## 1
Amino acid sequence: MIDVYAAAGTFADPKALARDLATALMRVEQVPDIMLFRKNTAAFVHQMPVNALSNVAGDADGVRIQVLTNAAALDREKQLTAVVELTRVASEAANDPSLADRTWVLLTEAPDGGWGIGGHAYLNNELIAAARAELGAT
């Protein structure tokens, strides 16, 4: 899951940004391009009034991208790549290369079983089994 927080108007097409961020995260995680992951890798763009955010200097033009993955989905190399790629996608979506300098990316992990969809909290081994089942079915 990806949550993006930015001042309203930062991104011309928030839905395209959400899709592109989710796609980039799937690439970084190196998960198979199967429906299980396509349906469960998503981004939510929160467009906030400009007076609802600020840094200490009073600037309201920063972007926060918070990523929640399952436990151990990102090793150090993938963490570094995720920050670079998600920052790049956001900067391009804003048509503002300088946005990279004002984009925070927070990488967090849910504990095993600490996230769910469809009323079920998934363990990592359950996700692996579901992915293998889908891959075997194609």
Note: The helical segments are 14-29, 35-40, 76-93, 124-137.
## 2
Amino acid sequence: MSGAPIDVLKRIPLFAELDDDELERVARLFKERRFSEGETIIQQGSGAAAFFVIDSGDATVFVDGKERRVLKPGERQQ
């Protein structure tokens, strides 16, 4: 699947001030991906640049092998 659901992007503060046309353009830049429980999404030190939006479920953040926090839909990692 490609693109992100507009209703999901509207709930993200970063995109809150965009109008519908702007949101549609941003949505086309996303690729929807689904991950299995326990699957690694991105690994520290991999050098990858990505932007992830959690629509459902949660993601555990590990730094130097230690659990730091669990991200839920709508939350952001700082």
Note: Strands lie at 59-63, 66-71.
## 3
Amino acid sequence: MLSIALRVIKWQLRQRRVRRILSLTDDGAPPEIAVPGLDSEARQALARFYKFLDTLPAEERTVFVLRQIEGMDLHEIAVAIGMSLATVKRRLSRARNQLTSRIQVDSALRAYAPRVTNNDA
């Protein structure tokens, strides 16, 4: 009887040590770990925005992407694509106007509209 009791106690102590080392719960299950969820709503909004961006003429889309996404200066854009500064500003303005009008009527993107800035003169 004593040897059985000692083996049971030894087994229990070993289980506790393993649970503590592996951070298991008392019943031996792994603990619940909070995993950040994927923001599917934001992904859908981004996909819709890219669809709108794809509808722009290539030159306007290029200017918009270089300015808003790549963060290039207007002068850098003009040099990079071989356009005058005035043409870059006009194309950027047209792209912004078209995108803004589409974003305003899209319920998924409307929440992101205040984040668009117009810092170019």
Note: The chain has a mean pLDDT of 80.
